[in-house]
Amino acid sequence: MLKVNKLSIQYGDKKVVSDLDIELGKDEIMMLVGPTGCGKTTILKSLAGLIPISDGEIALPKWCATAKNHIAPEKRNVGMVFQDFALFPHLTVEENIGFRLKELTQVNRWINILGLETIRRAKPHQLSGGQKQRVALARTLAHEPDFILLDEPLSNLDAALKDDLRWEIRNALKAAAIPAIWVTHDQEEALSVGDRVGILKHGVLEQLDTPEICYSQPNNKFVARFLGEASFVTGECNRDVQRVATSIGDAAYYPTEADQNEVDVLLRPDDLTIVHDDIGNGQVEWMRYEGSARLYSVIMDNGETIKVRSHHENKIDINERVSVRIFTQHPLQIFAHN
Ligand SMILES: Nc1ncnc2c1ncn2[C@@H]1O[C@H](COP(=O)(O)OP(=O)(O)OP(=O)(O)O)[C@@H](O)[C@H]1O
């Protein structure tokens, strides 16, 4: 189990990470996301012992690092997987995976699990990007680290490959039962492969929870906007029946402190329906074709802008009148109106 307690990190006078608390279960995968420059890589480096911390502690059962008690990287038994694979070019796949290992059981185990048998004697320059990343992962896992840090491991690979490989990585981490922190810029990846997602802003963790909770019950509008398309419409809460009424329909809501009369209601594009309607309640501003779906931006007659996702066969031209309605059966998240 990995425990990070009130961790703060500074570069000179500049505080980059503040009061970070994370506790990971023994085989838990935490995705770490946030805008560029918010401190994700800095956090990974501090956990690996590559940079000093200014406050707080990082603890595993075998050691505890603090500002005064720095633990050297090689004493932490941490595994790292980078976007550039970092393989030794002159060594074969099996030599890379077994680098400095005396015993080859783990090497053979991960070659087998990650499907590298046919390339075990190849050199890195003979491998595709996906194969290189599998080798890098196998090397990390074969060394049996106590925890693993992944810094955008898939960002140098093409989209089709990413999809499969992210699941292979998740399955391998689970098979190894090692806690992992995985930094990504890909929202879909963050929501689909992690057990929990941490959303960071200016070095502060805004929310750390399951993907479902972060997506459907974000703590604030920043988190809501960061994880997927988010529209906000004005609503009025009726506490007696726990429903919120808006200009495009009403729905149940998650009770929060923002439970005032007037609130802002979070709508995801899939919470809504859109049909062509000459009278309607809004007008299509733009449409983005996504293959199986179409994403519409609609300017409502009351001035609010709403994004709606619809089946690809539901084709509506720009500037056409439409009717947009709330469709979802699940409660909606509300925020204080501003
Ligand atoms: N060695 C350094 N010295 C001084 N400032 C640094 C150093 N490394 C990073 N920073 C600053 O710390 C902040 C956090 O950087 P970090 O690389 O951790 O962000 P990030 O969230 O990983 O960004 P990205 O998503 O772009 O990779 C940034 O403002 C960055 O400019």
Automatic annotation (TrEMBL):
GO terms for cellular component: membrane. GO terms for biological process: quaternary ammonium group transport. It comes from the Bacteria. Residues 2-227 form the ABC transporter domain. CDD domains: ABC_Carb_Solutes_like (cd03259). InterPro entries: AAA+_ATPase (IPR003593), ABC_SmlMolc_Importer (IPR050093), ABC_transporter-like_ATP-bd (IPR003439), ABC_transporter-like_CS (IPR017871), ABC_transpr_FbpC (IPR015853), Mo/tungstate-bd_C_term_dom (IPR008995), P-loop_NTPase (IPR027417). Keywords: ATP-binding, Cell membrane, Ion transport, Iron, Iron transport, Membrane, Nucleotide-binding, Transport. SUPFAM superfamilies: MOP-like, P-loop containing nucleoside triphosphate hydrolases. One of its GO terms (molecular function) is ATP binding. The keyword Nucleotide-binding applies. This is Putative ABC-type transport system, ATPase component. It comes from Bermanella marisrubri.
